[in-house]
């Protein structure tokens, strides 16, 4: 007898658009479930956050936190990390994927922060994106988390959640970002990034979504959701 194999959901097509009437209840239920919509990266300053986000590209927050737990007590300012140099920095972040390129970018960013921004993390997109290793997603995270700006950083989790639930569908992250910004109620916009990323990380997972434990099951438009009710 052949074994039944469940449909893998990591690359499922976008769902039908979630009705407008369900968008606010969707976020209200996430807010009831996720009491602390904050980043899981550890940091104590805007600069520490910036470096952690640069390091987190294609890496887990856990691996970044392990590295920065050793790095930040030794060097947590642009001047101190620049003094370490690339090789010195690499010795702290070698557990993180792409650490060679990331070390080079962080050193360049530290130099630019010192020379162009008086060692202060900029609070606007143009200046942030001028820094090495800082693209649109990283800038959005910093603007939202450090400065409380209503930006939406779309990572793999949010891209998946947006498409699977029908909240905001799109073929690329820019389209999903645009659609999310248009649909998210204004009073949820500041915390929406963290609601969605945490929901995607722990409940609406790539291959085995935990639909049985999903607080937004009723609003979600994923057509195969009933197949995962036991999870």
Automatic annotation (TrEMBL):
InterPro entries: DNA_glycosylase (IPR011257), Endonuclease-III-like_CS2 (IPR004036), Endonuclease3_FeS-loop_motif (IPR003651), HhH-GPD_domain (IPR003265), HhH_base_excis_C (IPR023170), HhH_motif (IPR000445), Nth (IPR005759). Residues 1-21 are annotated as: Disordered. It catalyses: 2'-deoxyribonucleotide-(2'-deoxyribose 5'-phosphate)-2'-deoxyribonucleotide-DNA = a 3'-end 2'-deoxyribonucleotide-(2,3-dehydro-2,3-deoxyribose 5'-phosphate)-DNA + a 5'-end 5'-phospho-2'-deoxyribonucleoside-DNA + H(+). [4Fe-4S] cluster binds at residues 204, 211, 214, 220. The keyword ATP-binding does not apply. Its cofactor is [4Fe-4S] cluster. Binds 1 [4Fe-4S] cluster. Its EC number is 4.2.99.18. PROSITE patterns: ENDONUCLEASE_III_2. GO terms for molecular function: class I DNA-(apurinic or apyrimidinic site) endonuclease activity. Keywords: 4Fe-4S, DNA damage, DNA repair, DNA-binding, Endonuclease, Glycosidase, Hydrolase, Iron, Iron-sulfur, Lyase, Metal-binding, Nuclease. Residues 55-202 form the HhH-GPD domain. HAMAP family: Nth (MF_00942). NCBIfam families: nth. Belongs to the Nth/MutY family. DNA repair enzyme that has both DNA N-glycosylase activity and AP-lyase activity. The DNA N-glycosylase activity releases various damaged pyrimidines from DNA by cleaving the N-glycosidic bond, leaving an AP (apurinic/apyrimidinic) site. The AP-lyase activity cleaves the phosphodiester bond 3' to the AP site by a beta-elimination, leaving a 3'-terminal unsaturated sugar and a product with a terminal 5'-phosphate. This is Endonuclease III. It comes from Psychrobacter namhaensis.
């Amino acid at each position: 007898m052949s074994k039944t194999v469940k449909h893998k959901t990591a690359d499922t097509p976008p769902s039908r658009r979630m009705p407008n009437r369900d968008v606010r209840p969707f976020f209200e239920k996430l807010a009831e479930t996720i009491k602390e919509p904050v980043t899981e990266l550890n940091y104590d300053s805007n600069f520490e956050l910036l470096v952690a986000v640069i390091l987190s590209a294609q890496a887990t927050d856990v691996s970044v936190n392990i590295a920065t737990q050793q790095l930040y007590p030794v060097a947590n300012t642009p001047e101190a990390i620049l003094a370490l140099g690339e090789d010195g920095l690499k010795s702290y972040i070698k557990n993180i994927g792409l650490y060679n390129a990331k070390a080079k970018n962080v050193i360049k960013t530290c130099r630019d922060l010192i020379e162009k921004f008086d060692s202060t993390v900029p609070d606007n997109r143009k200046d942030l994106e001028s820094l090495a290793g800082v693209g649109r997603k990283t800038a959005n995270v910093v603007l939202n988390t450090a400065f409380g700006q209503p930006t939406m950083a779309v990572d793999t989790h949010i891209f998946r959640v947006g498409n699977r639930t029908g909240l905001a569908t799109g073929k690329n992250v820019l389209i999903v970002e645009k659609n999310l910004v248009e649909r998210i109620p204004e009073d949820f916009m500041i915390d929406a990034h963290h609601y969605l990323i945490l929901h995607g990380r722990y409940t609406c997972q790539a291959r085995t979504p935990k639909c049985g434990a999903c607080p937004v099951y009723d609003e979600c438009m994923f057509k195969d959701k009933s197949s995962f009710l036991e999870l």
